Inverse folding.
């Protein structure tokens, strides 16, 4: 059986070999920070279960330590309340609300943030504290502040960070409001996603500083954005090529909603193939076009439901084997999605790294190609 030191070294070797780790200082952090101090008992998804069932992998059971050094996300809380230790039965179901993100993504993002010695960094979403400890190892305790929304998760992270002998500044609170103590940062990194860039971040990061955050929404589509703050309250940036997804920041999550009743509406042939929405970028473009809607269904049977107005759109196979859409309500959701997907298709269906983002007090826009290209307003 391998020791934690051997498993850490193997992880560092693997991430170096596959090109994830390109900076020696981050490789040293992987070799030094014991992930097992941060994770404890974790949930593992049961393959093929619908909805996904999770089995707690208890601290110390066979495979527990090896699982911690797999390059995998380890879920540590469901539905904002159920930890792996709370699971009385064999399995639990729920939506993951906290986790230790897979090391390759954490390290790729730390490197993409391009933080240098002496930079002050604000992290949003402490989670288990593993990514915070990596940052503290690389940049120094005094340069890292991390905010966690959930007090139970935050307290466990604080204990783990202390046990690992790091001492960054830790805050329990809503990271979307920024550091309540004020202060100016050179870099901001978020390990939860947002529907739009919180204005507080645009004032807390210095002009010339950077924000790395995943933009997501109510239809589960994600894209990783790297923004340069250009002036107080203003930033512009590009989306990065690596498909990256994070759980949505709790205040940006979908509101509670009743069960959806599918109702009659106006039917017509669709101008786009509904299965396009199942592709990574196609689904994201659809979400940009209908940011107030949640998307359900899959393949040819897509369902969009606008939570504010109750508007619905659903696609189905028509009698002549073509796709149809049925829409009802004040917002023509499918018309919006069709126009956006057609713009994207006209541009040759580029990946997310062909999109950019501009944000200021007057609004937030995601654009395709160039700032004057097709664009969509974020729901701020
Ligand atoms: C994917 S986990 C973080 C992973 C973590 N960085 C790690 O390496 O273990 C996302 C975390 O963001 C937290 N979160 C969600 N909304 C937040 C908010 N508004 N402010 C701060 N933290 C938030 C969640 O509670 C969760 O613990």
């Amino acid at each position: 059986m391998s020791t934690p030191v051997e498993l850490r070294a193997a992880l560092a070797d693997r991430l170096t070999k596959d090109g994830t780790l390109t900076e020696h200082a981050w490789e040293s952090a992987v070799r030094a920070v014991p992930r097992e101090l941060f994770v404890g008992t974790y949930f593992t998804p049961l393959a093929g279960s619908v909805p996904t069932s999770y089995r707690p992998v208890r601290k110390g059971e066979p495979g527990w330590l090896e699982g911690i050094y797999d390059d995998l996300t380890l879920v540590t809380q469901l539905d904002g309340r159920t930890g792996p230790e709370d699971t009385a039965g064999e399995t639990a179901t729920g939506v993951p609300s906290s986790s230790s993100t897979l090391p390759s993504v954490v390290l790729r993002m730390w490197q993409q943030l391009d933080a240098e010695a002496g930079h002050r960094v604000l992290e949003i979403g402490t989670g288990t504290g593993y990514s915070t400890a990596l940052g503290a190892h690389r940049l120094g305790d005094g340069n890292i502040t991390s905010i966690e929304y959930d007090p139970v998760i935050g307290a466990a992270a604080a204990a783990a960070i202390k046990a690992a002998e790091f001492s960054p500044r830790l805050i329990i609170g809503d990271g979307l409001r920024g550091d309540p103590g004020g202060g100016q940062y050179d870099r901001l990194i978020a390990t939860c996603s947002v529907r739009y860039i919180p204005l507080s971040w645009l004032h807390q990061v210095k002009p010339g500083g950077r924000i790395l955050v995943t933009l997501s929404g109510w239809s589960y589509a994600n894209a990783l954005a790297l923004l340069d703050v250009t002036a107080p309250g203003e930033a512009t940036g590009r989306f990065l090529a690596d498909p990256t997804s994070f759980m949505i920041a709790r205040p940006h999550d979908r509101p509670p909603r009743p069960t959806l009743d599918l109702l009659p509406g106006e039917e017509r042939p669709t101008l786009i193939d509904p299965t396009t929405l199942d592709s990574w970028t196609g689904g994201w473009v659809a979400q940009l076009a209908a940011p107030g809607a949640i998307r359900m269904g899959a393949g040819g049977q897509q369902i969009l439901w606008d939570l504010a107005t109750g508007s619905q759109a659903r696609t189905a196979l028509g009698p002549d084997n073509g796709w149809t859409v049925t829409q009802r309500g004040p917002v023509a959701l499918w018309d919006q999605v069709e126009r956006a997907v057609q713009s994207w298709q006209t541009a040759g269906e580029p990946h997310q790294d062909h999109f950019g983002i501009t944000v200021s007090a007057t609004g937030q826009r995601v654009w395709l190609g160039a700032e004057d290209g097709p664009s969509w307003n974020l729901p701020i």
